[in-house]
Amino acid sequence: MIRELLNGALAELIEKSRVSPRKRAPMPLHPSDYSGPQALINAIQPDSYMCPHMHPHDEIWTPVRGRILLGIFDNEGNPRERAILSEQETAYRLVPARVYHFAFALERDSVFLNVSQGPFNPETAKVFAPWAPRETDSEDDVQRYFASVKDDFLWTIC
């Protein structure tokens, strides 16, 4: 179990996100079999597409560095609300269980922390939105959807 995360390790995680094909680098802060609260730190770049998804448990989001838009959808895929995670804006956001959400970085080298209930079960941990392309779908479909949903969250949701 990681008891502290030094700035040097955070800088390495950010660098990893810059060169990752997914443009993000998640790092669990506990062993995979840990049954307590699950903590994950994630470095993310602005061009990283995160497929909208939901979890069977509540999830806490807090910013560590930069600015991240956390978007909440209704069950049909319509943008419902947003939070801008940063030092100047939202410092804490609870995403309730079974609510579709996603995030994207508004600044390079952004980092956020997720906390959720353990233990982690890869079979039930995440349900992807049926109305959104998966990260593995065609690049054109992903980029078209990502650009559209970014615009929706940046300009139409207040």
- How many individual β-strands? 10
Lateral strand order in the biggest sheet: 1-2-9-4-7
Main beta-sheet annotation: 5 strands, antiparallel
**Structural class, from helix and strand content?**
alpha+beta
Distance between the termini: 39 Å
- Report the C-alpha radius of gyration, rounded: 15 Å
The H/E string reads HEEEEEEEEEEH
Number of helices: 2
Beta-strand residue percentage:
25-35%
- The percent of residues in helical segments reads 10-25%
Descriptive account of the structure:
With 158 residues, the chain is α+β, with helices and mostly antiparallel strands. Helices cover 20% and strands 32% of the residues. It is built from 2 helices and 10 strands, in the order H-E-E-E-E-E-E-E-E-E-E-H. The chain has helices spanning 7-19, 139-156; strands at residues 24-28, 38-44, 53-54, 59-65, 68-73, 79-85, 93-95, 101-105, 110-116, 127-128. The strands form 3 sheets. Strands 1-2-9-4-7 form a 5-stranded antiparallel β-sheet. A 3-stranded antiparallel β-sheet has the order 6-5-8, with helices on one face. A two-stranded antiparallel ribbon has the order 3-10. Strand 5 (68-73) and strand 6 (79-85) form a beta hairpin. The mean pLDDT is 93.
